Amino acid sequence: MQIKGSIAIVTGAASGLGAATAAVLAGAGAKIVAFDLNEAGAKATAEKLDGVGFGVDVSDAVSVEKAVSDVVASVGTPSILVNCAGIVHGERIVGREGPADLDAFARVINVNLIGTFNMMRVVANAMSNNAPSASGERGVIINTASIAAFEGQIGQAAYAASKGGVASLTLPAARELARHGIRVASIAPGLFGTPMLMGLPDEVQESLAANTPFPKRLGDPAEYGRLAMHICENEMINGETIRIDGAVRLEPK
């Protein structure tokens, strides 16, 4: 995929992995369309990058369909989608006060997994109308899984299940969308310096970093962004979930 001149939609773009990825792709010459439930945050990211921002609920069909339609009408048809929007919820399946909150579990699945699929289905439909490159490529979709998809910890049932779903979605989506010239890959980040982790006490951050074999630090969101950029540029990466984690493996708790 030629990034320069491409239109790239990035979800969760108000902060963290999404904001960093938007900045990396903008630096490579992409026109950034920032999506986030936090509309002011999306527009703030877009303004810094000479892009456009939209308030979008990725888990809502109407919200996504309208936003993508507006993008196509006002900016053009995207050829890159990076799904970074996501939420975290920690709760034991059986806790001291009884069974886990089913609504909370459903909310995580709805945003992290169904939201990813929702964005994929609508944007892939738009991408299918792009003129193909010389190799037949029309678009690239990059989803965010997590190492929790493979080593979910105690209390992470909802988050691990949602990210495991994203990882499992990757290959069938790549196979199905191949006929349209659209590649699909996922990134499974480890412990990254996102607002969620950076809000923890320093000693907790240091403990998390110490568990990473090398480098012994939290990942920089820009490193995620650079991997996303490489996936866009490398046409042979398709149907795969790539870990970026410094060789860390999560303990049970």
UniProtKB/TrEMBL annotation:
Domain of life of the native organism: Bacteria
InterPro entries xref list: NAD(P)-bd_dom_sf, Sc_DH/Rdtase_CS, SDR_fam
Keyword Oxidoreductase among UniProt keywords: yes
PROSITE patterns (UniProt xref): ADH_SHORT
Keywords annotated in UniProt: Oxidoreductase, Signal
Keyword Cell division: no
Signal peptide: 1-22
Family note: Belongs to the short-chain dehydrogenases/reductases (SDR) family.
Name listed for the protein in its UniProt record: 3-hydroxyacyl-CoA dehydrogenase
